[in-house]
Amino acid sequence: MRLVHELLASLRNFVASVGALSIFFVRVLGQVPAALLKPGYVIAQIHNAGALSLVIIMTCGLFVGAVLGLQGYDLLQRFGSEDSLGTAAALGLIKELGPVVTALLFAGRAGTALASEIGLMRATDQLSAMEMMAVDPIRRVVAPRFIGGVIAMPLLSAIFISIGIYGVHLVGVQQLGVDPGSFWSQMIASVEAGDINEGILKSCVFGVACSLIAVHEGYTAQPTAEGVGRATTRTVVISAVLTLILDFMLTAVML
Prior knowledge:
Layout: H1 2-36, H2 39-49, H3 54-76, H4 85-123, H5 126-132, H6 137-172, H7 180-190, H8 193-219, H9 225-254
Helix pairs in contact: 1-6, 2-6, 3-4, 3-6, 4-6, 4-7, 4-8, 4-9, 6-8, 8-9
């Protein structure tokens, strides 16, 4: 009986959390047009979420592509299809690895920064001070950061995919001896617009999800050092799990 009560309590808390997040999302969307009227704030947040994440995105993209080249070559040579390495790597990066790994890295770097920054504002009563001065903190603080994350995520994903393909070429063509003409020609012939659109859609959806989780956790954090740390941890965990769930759902729908 106690187990049933605990399960019902957990279910009730989950439904309440989803409802609170949905209401917060609607509030943020309502302030997006007003935030766009001040592009300086949005550009600054694109820089914070995107440009400051370039080093980790490019480094991980290069080595993910290199590993993909090694593993793909090892697999394809068993079937005598080494020349298809470019096609396999490009499709894997564009449709899956690029958006998913970028979202995980984004949550770990930019998401935690957003959550901790807003959480610190909550802990130091800066958000309460804005409300007392009749300034909506969602419009002034949350919405620009949300927009910046949503815009930065697809751009970072495109950079990750580009660097990843270069990593595959570096290993497959220059190290393992795959014919460069076949590598690029088969890739160009096989990758279709629908594959690119799938990658773009996933990147946009992951950008919305990760940015929303980050700003929500920071905005609702307990005004203590422990609360800010807990919000930062929850941002990474929830964003990672939600990214993988959304990836499965989007892939199932598109297939």
